[in-house]
């Protein structure tokens, strides 16, 4: 256990040449946050493999970026399928000029519903048995991330060269829902807490893994993407700051390109970013979260309503 790790130095200049020529796999990279990250990484000179279920959009993204002169390869992949995801990892290694894998960004995810909807479904006959709930959101957000993590560690070690001092790098995309309470998206929250737990269990295990390694967690608040389009305007109208994709891409590129950053969790809210202090000294993220919630500059004047999430979303 690390009592207090060094927080991220946000004043430090980001040298994007640090990942030039490196092999990068991004799940869910055809749209939203994933595509924003994939584009930024490709612009830095990396060889990027986008693994996504949307074949039409994925092929379109590949064409757009390769025509712009970047190294991008699309692979159709279902992250809830071990076989499909394994093939995506092998494709990324094959695409790399050095037949290596250096960076994996486990970004794929989808929004989740509430346990209330599953425990108390509308129009259920009082004499009927409760139907088995879908676990698709858990399978994508947690199981898929777990599969991605296992495969990343395996192929990191398999492609590690003792002559290469570059630290293999795994970034897990979580959410502020992995720190806060959210009744109306409880299955999403459960998955993101699980992703955070997975990250905490591997972040300081470089010696055990047997190769140079570091990992980070990215925990955005609300980001304007297709996944949030059904409610994000309500969030903004209520006075809560909403991030744009580029507000999250910047912090991702910072941790990717600074090898001194290891085992840190970053929260993005609006155009602000802060280190969660997710270690025992920081109250496992609680100190930074409550400090930021109290500061309207970060979360906005409507942020206090987020503490009463159910009331917040049911108010108009």
UniProtKB/TrEMBL annotation:
UniProt keywords, alphabetically: Oxidoreductase
Any matching Pfam family: adh_short
Superkingdom of source: Eukaryota
Gene Ontology CC entries for this record: cytoplasm
GO molecular function: oxidoreductase activity, acting on the CH-OH group of donors, NAD or NADP as acceptor
Family to which this protein belongs: Belongs to the short-chain dehydrogenases/reductases (SDR) family.
Stated name of the protein: NAD(P)-binding protein
Species of origin: Aureobasidium pullulans EXF-150
Upper lineage: Eukaryota, Fungi, Dikarya, Ascomycota, Pezizomycotina
């Amino acid at each position: 256990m690390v009592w207090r790790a060094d927080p991220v130095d946000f004043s430090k200049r980001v040298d994007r040449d640090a990942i030039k020529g490196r092999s990068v796999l991004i799940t869910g990279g055809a749209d939203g946050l994933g595509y924003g990250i994939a584009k930024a990484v490709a612009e830095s000179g990396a060889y990027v493999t986008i693994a996504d279920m949307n074949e039409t959009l994925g092929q379109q993204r590949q064409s757009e970026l390769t025509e712009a002169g970047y190294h991008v390869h699309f692979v159709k992949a279902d992250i809830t399928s071990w076989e499909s995801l394994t093939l995506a990892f092998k494709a990324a290694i094959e695409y790399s000029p050095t037949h290596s894998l250096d960076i994996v960004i486990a970004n794929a995810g989808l929004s989740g519903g509430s346990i209330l909807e599953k425990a108390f479904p509308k129009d259920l006959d009082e004499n009927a048995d409760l139907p088995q709930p879908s676990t698709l959101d858990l399978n994508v957000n947690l199981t898929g991330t777990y599969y991605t993590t296992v495969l990343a560690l395996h192929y990191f070690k398999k492609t590690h060269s003792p002559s290469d001092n570059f630290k293999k790098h795994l970034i897990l995309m979580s959410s502020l829902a992995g720190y806060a309470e959210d009744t109306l998206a409880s299955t999403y929250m459960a998955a993101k807490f699980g992703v955070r737990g997975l990250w905490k269990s591997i972040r300081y295990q470089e010696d055990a893994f047997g190769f140079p390694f570091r990992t980070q967690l990215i925990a955005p608040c609300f980001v304007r993407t297709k996944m949030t389009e059904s409610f994000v305007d309500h969030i903004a109208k209520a006075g809560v700051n909403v991030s744009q994709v580029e507000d999250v891409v910047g912090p991702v590129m910072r941790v990717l390109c600074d090898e001194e950053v290891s085992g840190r969790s970053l929260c993005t809210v609006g155009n602000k970013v802060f280190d969660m202090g997710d270690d025992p000294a920081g109250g496992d993220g609680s100190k930074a979260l409550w400090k930021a919630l109290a500061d309207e500059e970060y979360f906005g004047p409507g942020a206090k309503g987020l503490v009463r999430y159910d009331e917040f979303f049911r108010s108009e």
